[in-house]
Design a protein that fits this description.
The protein is mostly helical. It is built from 15 helices and four strands. The protein starts with a helix and ends with a strand. The C terminus is likely disordered.
Length: 404
């Protein structure tokens, strides 16, 4: 009986995979979805690997293994993939806006449709943490602990706010040369670090810094980055510039923020973070053809399509998943890799061992809150629910389709 049940389940999975593959339009660039999924996966794994919550008496404080072990900085080079996220976002938004304009859709209608994909999941996160914060404070929890938890849980929102702003400005940014915002970042850093300017000036780079890869995405849509030479120039130029800035310019080697560090490459973005992003964007462009070939495999494509269905849920809830596991783990005492000081390789090994648990917690969050990312559709008579992938290279969404 078990063998029959297992065979039936396997057949069902294969059928679903084939259905997703057949429902995907031939002209869809699957590499775009693959890059988006890889970018989000990089952010999630990066946070899970370098974000530590140390149990110190009755409180939790944020820490990072990159501070006591700075030679682990290459981890941040692999998993800080936000530039790719903005590159894909700029490409998809520019393409979507051009398509909407060709259909006669107004800017307001287009913007509401784009932002609704962000605002619905964000509302769920804000609501849960508002309730959680009130409950923690009412129960007498340490104020510093509550501040740490809320700050980490809501940290992904900063990037989505910037992303939403750039999306809203897409009609004005479709022709922006990436060199202009790059020049702004350069001048801001010269004033801040070279001329002793005010620290608050760095926040100009929050918009200018992420506009660089976003504008590259628009250039991709215009067909200006199709040649492999463009990818090599971005990758090589960005890598060399980053090495020079870190080795001789005094910028930190880590591409993520470290608690207690004097300067952060990410908060706000520095010139080193932006040049590093250029290298990442170049590598992403070079990987398009290999990814397109890989996405021809139905099973691989089905996994990427599923990840894109839950892209915002994964991005918004991965920090909450980490903290939920950390809080529940305290019931068993201070656990290695979860509540201990991240200052040894033993901690790193223990943290890697916790990753499957974080994945399970995130899967539960996806089941509980993923509905806020899916646009509800009422099926009409004679329809059945199947997966259909949209043509604009945006996140795949379930859609009702007529019965055969």
């Amino acid at each position: 009986m078990r063998e029959v049940t297992g065979t039936t389940a396997l057949t069902g999975v294969r059928t679903a995979i084939d259905r997703i593959d057949r429902a995907t339009p031939v002209e869809r660039d699957r590499a775009v979805d693959a890059l988006r999924a890889l970018a989000i996966l990089g952010v999630v794994l990066g946070h899970w690997l370098v974000t530590a919550l140390v149990a110190d008496g009755g409180a939790l404080r944020a820490a990072s293994p990159l501070r006591p072990m700075p030679w682990l900085a290459p981890i941040s080079w692999v998993f800080q993939t936000l530039a790719v996220f903005f590159l894909v976002g700029g490409h998809v938004a520019t393409k979507s806006f051009a398509s909407a304009r060709a259909r006669g859709t107004t800017y307001g209608q287009w913007l509401r449709a784009r932002l609704s994909r962000l605002l619905r999941p964000i509302t769920a996160v804000l609501t849960l943490w508002a309730v959680a914060t009130v409950c923690l404070l009412a129960s007498g929890a340490d104020l510093g602990t509550v501040h740490t938890l809320v700050k980490l849980a809501l940290s992904p929102l900063w990037f989505l706010v910037v992303f939403a702003g750039l999306t809203a400005a897409t009609p004005l940014l479709t022709r922006v040369n990436p060199l202009w915002p790059l020049a702004v970042v350069l001048h801001v850093d010269v004033i801040r670090f070279g001329l002793g300017g005010p620290a608050w000036l760095g926040w100009v780079n929050v918009a200018a810094g992420w506009l660089v890869p976003y504008a590259l995405g628009a250039a991709w849509t215009r067909g200006e980055l199709e040649r492999r030479r463009a990818g090599w120039v971005l990758f090589g130029g960005g890598a060399v510039a980053t090495v020079v800035l870190v080795a001789w310019g005094g910028y930190p080697a880590s591409m993520v923020g470290i608690p207690g560090a004097t300067v952060s490459n990410l908060n706000p973005p520095t010139l080193a973070a932006v040049t590093f992003g250029l290298a990442q964007c170049g590598l992403a462009l070079l990987l398009r053809e290999p990814l397109r070939r890989g996405m021809r495999r139905p099973a691989v494509w089905a996994g990427i399509a599923f990840a894109n269905l839950s892209a915002m849920t994964i991005f918004l809830w991965h920090q909450t998943s980490l903290m939920a596991v950390t809080a529940l783990g305290l019931l068993a005492g201070r656990l290695p890799g979860l509540h201990t000081t991240p200052d040894t390789l033993a901690w790193v090994a223990a943290r890697v061992a916790w990753l499957p648990v974080f994945v399970c917690a995130l899967a539960l969050c996806r089941c509980a809150f993923g509905i806020h990312e899916r646009v509800s559709r009422r099926p009409t008579g004679g329809t059945s629910r199947v997966v259909r992938v949209h043509r604009d290279s945006g996140p795949a969404t379930p859609k009702a389709a007529p019965r055969a």
